[in-house]
Amino acid sequence: MAAVKNIAIIGASGLLGSRIATALVIAGYSVTAVQRKVSQKPIPAGLRVVKTDLGDETGLTQIFDGQDVVISAVGIPSFETEKVWIDAAIAASVKRIIPSEFTTNMESPLAIQLPVATEKVKVRQYLTSKISNTSAPTTWTSLNNGAFLDMTIKFGALGPNPITKQAIFHNGGDNEIGPSTLADIADAIVRILDPANFADTTNQAVYIHSAAVTERKLTAMMSKILDIDFGSVEDGRIPDVNVDELMEKAKGQLEAGDMTGMLNYYYVMMYEEGYGGKDFKKLSWNERLGIRVMNDDELERAVRGFLSFISA
């Protein structure tokens, strides 16, 4: 497989996209940030910036000419927008497309039916169909990594909340899931594009995780780090939410036009049986890509770092 040199990234100004772009620059790639004309968001150092209309397939095809890889790191991908740049990337004969999947488990037949996955499912299906029906040399890889550990720890989405000093469990709090740090996600992209892994990751959904955690484990860990008594389910201070009931609540919220209910589907994806959240070890590419899983001591140090803003 020919070496990858030039990479275009959509969403390089975002939380994850900026990490990925910076990691690629450090790894020695020539990285171009493709940004909307009206955007004023800062782009990481070391990137070439091209402003364009993301709905202009012809213009995007010209931008992608000479690029080896196109990556989408947009936070909430829309099929209608993603479709345009996918067509442009294939028309430009790029070697690899990496769509914006990341937090979503796409291998579970149940998970892909959730409203939170709808647009990403459309993108994956379109991408794979388009590539299989073209003579272009383009291939695809998706990266899926569970929850963003850095952010979910800070805002209490995985059990304990350092701001409210309260915790919430889902389906007992003992369900083990595999979140990933932003640094590991960016590193995984770099490793996927490495010549040693490029062929093996061709037309593959790649799954990684930085640690194996439960809500109870993280609550005990945060209690130790911040000296917070979160209480327990038994004493009534920690609610234990039934995820099946949460899903029914989310359906009602969406039917009423309340889009905040969409976030509850992530708990379904993580903790409900059959939705893939518990399958992270079975799906893992960590060993093949050379990405270590943190032990408990390393996880505690990482959590301390994520929570440093508390004492600032």
TrEMBL record:
Q: Where is the NmrA-like domain?
A: 5-134
Please name the InterPro entries in this protein's record: NAD(P)-bd_dom_sf, NmrA-like, NmrA/Isoflavone_reductase-like
List residues traversing the bilayer. Answer: none
Protein name (database record): NAD(P)-binding protein
What are the alphabetically sorted keywords of the record? NADP, Oxidoreductase
* Species this chain originates from: Aspergillus ruber (strain CBS 135680)
Q: Please provide, alphabetically and separated by semicolons, the GO molecular function terms listed in this UniProt record.
A: oxidoreductase activity
**Which Pfam families does this chain map to?**
NmrA (PF05368)
Q: Which domain of life is it from?
A: Eukaryota
